[in-house]
Fold this protein.
Amino acid sequence: MSRFLFIRHGECEKNLDEVTGGDGAKLTERGVRQAERSAAGLAAELAHPTVLACPATQTVETAAIIARVMGCDYRIESRLAPADMGVVGGLKQTDIEARHPEYAEQLLRWRRREIEAHELRIRGIEPPARFWARMMAVLRAYDRNEEVVVVATRSIMVFAANLAMGRTPEPGGGYKHVSIGHCQTVTVSR
């Protein structure tokens, strides 16, 4: 059985601007300190994990800090790309509200946990069931009876939290938003 420790990246510049999705951004000074503290905690808990990073700037920077502190390597796993948020991806919250008020309302309801993932109807969004299948394929690929640290974005952290709670993206599966802080972890055993 493998143990996956999902960890959200440290605070990055796009978080300060309330940007949804997008290509990522550099860690802030605070984000670097968060990553260093988390890395020290992981080093005390894990011996020789596999460290994977989502291919976003802030996750790669966080993974590099973790690997340096733990004295191991990390790899960028392209299949761990964040969920594609369609037309709202890369936009600040204020821009979403101005350009796409109907989507801003959906995102607000999602963040309040009033709707499930399958109810998000944003043009161009990656269907939650497809995102789920993509993430599950990565877990199967690394299920080698070892410990795996996955440095991830919010969308992947929400996936991990829902998986840990037994929720799925099908209608009625209970897959809802979960608030995940910077460098917070979610553990999933498979």
